[in-house]
Design goal:
By secondary structure, this protein is mainly beta. The protein has a single domain, classed as Sandwich (Jelly Rolls). Helix content is about 5%, strand content about 55%. It has one helix and 14 strands. The strands form two sheets. Strands 1, 2, 5, 6, 8, 11 and 14 form a seven-stranded mixed beta sheet that branches. It has a seven-stranded antiparallel beta sheet with strand order 4-3-7-13-9-10-12, with no helix packed on it. It is globular, with a radius of gyration of 16 Å.
Length: about 180
């Protein structure tokens, strides 16, 4: 029985949180099409198989397009995300959004996927220092206090077209997501 349990763990996506592993399946798969939130159009999807998330994208407009999915898992803290990415070398950029307990979202720009093959990437989750009366486009929703209220509800992982005028299609894969 224990052997079967560990075999199962090897074939499902796992989010590692402070050396503790948690099974997390992708949910709430969405897209941005011509700068608007939309259900993923034809040719855009996220799947999971054997612990690997595959993002198949088809950016079709000369405005902002993106494909993204949620991993719903409470996080006591989040200062950095590390993940392994199998890149397609097309230069589109990874991004992460963390959602706090009030539903407030914080956007973090990630690196360009300008490589092919597997590579470990890290995204520092440096929350902005807010001055009174200042608003950031990278923070929205929830209680609007513009600082993370822990525990976090989860993270969103996505791929932005870069530049926004890019019309392109391809596929990247993500595995071994770790939040520290």
């Amino acid at each position: 029985m224990i052997k079967n349990f560990f075999s199962l763990l090897l074939f499902v996506p796992i989010l590692f949180i402070h050396a503790e592993s948690v099974i997390v399946h992708p949910s709430h798969i969405q897209a941005h099409v011509a700068e608007r939130v939309a259900t993923p159009p034809m040719g855009n999807f996220v799947t999971e198989e054997n612990g690997v998330y595959t993002l198949k994208y088809n950016f079709t407009t000369e405005k902002h397009d993106a494909l993204f999915f949620d991993l719903d898992c409470p996080l006591k803290t989040a200062e950095e995300m590390a993940l392994q990415v199998n890149g397609d070398g097309k230069g589109h950029t990874l991004f992460v959004v963390v959602r706090d307990q009030s539903g407030e979202s914080f956007y973090f720009h990630g690196p360009a996927i300008d490589f092919t093959g597997w590579k470990t990437l890290k995204i520092k989750l440096n929350y902005p220092q807010i001055n009174p009366g200042e608003k950031y486009a990278s923070i929205w929703g929830g209680d609007g206090n513009q600082h993370p209220d822990f525990p976090l509800q989860g993270v969103t992982i996505g791929l932005n077209d870069t530049p926004d005028t890019a019309i392109d299609s391809g596929e990247i894969q993500i595995k071994d997501v770790q939040v520290k």
